Amino acid sequence: ESLNQSVSELKKINVSFEFFPPTTESMENTLWDSIERLQTLKPSFVSVTYGANSGTRDRTHNVIKSIQERTGLVAAPHLTCIDANEQELRQIAKDYWNSGVKNIVALRGDLPSGSSKPNMYASDLVELLKQEADFDISVAAYPEVHSEAKSAQADLQALKRKMDAGANRAITQFFFDVESYLRFRDRCAAIGIESEIVPGILPVSNYNTLLKFANFANVKVPNWLHQQFQGLDNDQNTRNLVGASIAMDMVKVLSREGVKDFHFYTLNRSELSYAICHTLGVRP
Ligand code: FAD
């Protein structure tokens, strides 16, 4: 393949970065250092998580507000519906829209322990948001199937409902098996989902933390990944290099397979995401 061709293809790549609200002053400094570095890559948007480990909605909104004030970035709050009633959600939607927040990552949120039937699904939230205003909406997708889904097909139909309700794109749960993403993307196309299925890339710098996330999120950690991080428990530098290299390999294959949009779970750090973007041709 010609170098010129691959360089011009590289130009079309869009990236987005996900952050979580910091809880301490030093975490806050880390977050802002990361935002400042990553904003030079002109992401199409950045998002800020809410709930679960991310605390109250105010915390999310405050970070969103600061990003809007301090940078020119499009900032999308994550919004979950499982912990609010319809009236509250409509008010939140109005408040967001009126304060210039027009992009939302719409989620159901995790069931509180003990409860089994949610009051709402994410597709209901997408519908509600679209009734309030013409938000740009991202929703979640699961190449390795959501833990509560009756079947892979039922999960796919749930995603289709979210897209039909007006979502603009789906962002996947992180994964390490690129084939599982590619198969999933094919299955999405086969049931008529035309929007982008944006791969969520988690650059791994702490393998033990990853294991906790993966266990919680029902994501397979392949044996080869385990082997790559073996013996590095006390060697952060090498872990970063290995983690970046793994993600670089993944995005290279994905990009060759025609993926043009990438979402990075930054964990509020910039180094790995920045380097991976660089190899994709996404540069200041
Ligand atoms: P849904 O799309 O509603 O799906 C939930 C489950 O219900 C699935 O198993 C689905 O198959 C099933 N289902 C859907 N519709 C129906 C129906 N009509 N009948 C029966 N079953 C149905 N969590 C947070 O708390 N805060 C965050 O900031 C956050 N950010 C995230 C970002 C991304 C990109 C991703 C991938 C996940 C995020 N999560 C977050 C986690 C998410 O909230 C959980 O995975 C949650 O359990 C499911 O949310 P969902 O939006 O995918 O739900």
Automatic annotation (TrEMBL):
Primary enzyme class: oxidoreductase
Cofactor(s) listed: FAD
EC number in record: 1.5.1.54
Domain of life: Bacteria
PANTHER family according to UniProt: METHYLENETETRAHYDROFOLATE REDUCTASE (PTHR45754), METHYLENETETRAHYDROFOLATE REDUCTASE (NADPH) (PTHR45754:SF3)
NCBIfam families: fadh2, PRK09432.1
UniProt record similarity statement: Belongs to the methylenetetrahydrofolate reductase family.
Protein name (Swiss-Prot/TrEMBL): Methylenetetrahydrofolate reductase
Organism lineage: Bacteria, Pseudomonadati, Pseudomonadota, Gammaproteobacteria, Alteromonadales
